[in-house]
Give the backbone structure.
Amino acid sequence: MAKPDALSPRDARAQAQRNRILDAAQKCFAERGFHGAGMALIADTAQMSPGLIYCYFAGKSELIHGIVSRQIELMAEDLETFQSGAQDAAALIAERFREDADGSGRDTGRARMLEPALILEIVAESGRDPVIASAFKAFDRHIDDALATWLARPREQGGQGVPADQLPARVLALRSLLDGLKMRQAHQPQIDSTLLREALDLVLQGPRANA
């Protein structure tokens, strides 16, 4: 993957400001909920004036849109790895679960990944707010496309060799597993990694495990 062109000092500063605001908003939304976290609280958490925040985001809906859009960027490398079959799928999922649970992924930017409680908030709001719905639809599409590509890839290339007519059902089943795993992380973050890997192997490998 080609590296993006370097940002100008002005653009780099603007991006840093946006990330600072999004970090504060994500923290506040996760702790207080979408409706419980006002712009004043977000500004205080970001240690900047509300007026400066409004220079970058028109309101809370745009903040959520920004948070979700950033998730797509943060997940890009993992999704590419998943699609290519370059790493065992169960191992990759289990590794990411462990990093999120013990904080070891902070140096790679995973500290900014969506918390389970915030995901539920966003799902709820996406049914009422078209700005948030647009961002979440793009988020879903990126993940589902990566899963479909991996499932369709031949097994000798690290995939599952799933026929095209079975892909929609298999994507839905696998996505339900991953979404459920994210929710379980909220109340059982220290789940045994060996047990998790074994469970993922059972589900992901399916018929191959019995071949």
Q: What stands out?
A: Residues 60-84 form the longest helix (25 residues). The domain at 9-57 is CATH 1.10.10.60 (Arc Repressor Mutant, subunit A). The chain is about 70% helix and 0% strand.
